[in-house]
Amino acid sequence: MCYVDTIEGVQQQQSLMTTNEFESKLLAEYRANPTPQLIWKTIQSVPGDIIIFVVVSTFTGVFLGFFFGLFIGMLAAVIPTLIGIFVAKKKWGSKCYRLYPDRIEEDMGVLSTSKRSVPMNNITEVKQQQSWFEGFFDVGDIVLRNRRGSSMKFKYLDNPDEVYREVQAIVSEHRRMEEDEISRKADAIEQQTEALRDVAEQSQK
């Protein structure tokens, strides 16, 4: 996990940047820790591996001998598990979550990279989740809910308490800046309306 910049620093730079430059400013970047997922996948595969080992070693042992049957059974049980662990490591090790002033992005992929993006102004709630298994590794999930009721989940992040505070601060600050911008525009419209009213009154005189 790498916290790139602070809200205050970005606010100070906003006035010096164009809109495109400001929107591309990276605020924070987090990467998933694949270790818990790999261990959980290994635990889940144990019962199936035992069944495969017993069946394959028994069947091949009848025709090829006891020890050769054990060897073939072990390969049949272990190789699929190793492939699954390798794919899971690539998948979760490639997961990256990035926060920008205007959006949140999720990158992941094994053979190809896929990207998902959610506008920052659609985020309505930030929650932290941690299962009992994740607690053993001090990792957790950050859930971002949007206005449509769906959510984006940052999974298997190290130091979830710290990440939650940082993400919550970024989302809250964006909401405050958005409200300030709306208020500023409303004030400008009100001033223009008053100016037009004054002009109309003077013209009537």
Notes on the structure:
The chain folds into 2 domains: 2-32 and 95-204, Pleckstrin-homology domain (PH domain)/Phosphotyrosine-binding domain (PTB) (PH-domain like, Roll); 37-90, no CATH class. Helices cover 59% and strands 23% of the residues. The longest helix is centred in the last third of the chain and has 45 residues, at 160-204. Mean pLDDT is 75; it is low at 1-7 and 10-19. The protein contains 6 helices and 8 strands. 17% of the residues are buried. The strands form 2 sheets. It has a 5-stranded antiparallel sheet with strand order 1-2-3-4-5. A 3-stranded antiparallel sheet has the order 6-7-8, covered by helices on one side. The protein is an alpha+beta fold and 205 residues long. Strand 7 and strand 8 (151-158) form a beta hairpin. It is rod-shaped and about 110 Å long. Helix 3 runs antiparallel to helix 4 (66-93).
Helix content, binned percent = 55-70%
Shape, please?
rod-shaped
CATH superfamily of the largest domain: Pleckstrin-homology domain (PH domain)/Phosphotyrosine-binding domain (PTB)
Q: Structural class of the helices, strands and pairings?
A: alpha+beta
CATH architecture annotation name of the largest domain: Roll
Average pLDDT, rounded to a whole number, is 75
Q: How much beta, percentage-wise?
A: 15-25%
**Intertermini distance:** 67 Å
Query: What count of structural domains?
Result: 2
Mind telling me the CATH class of the largest domain? Answer: Mainly Beta
Count of DSSP strands = 8
- What Rg is obtained from the alpha carbons, in whole angstroms? 27 Å
Number of helices: 6
Uncertain stretches of 5 or more adjacent residues: 1-7, 10-19
Main β-sheet description: 5 strands, antiparallel
Helix and strand string, N-terminal first? EHHEHHEEEEHEEH
Write out the strand line-up for the largest beta sheet, numbering strands in chain order. Answer: 1-2-3-4-5
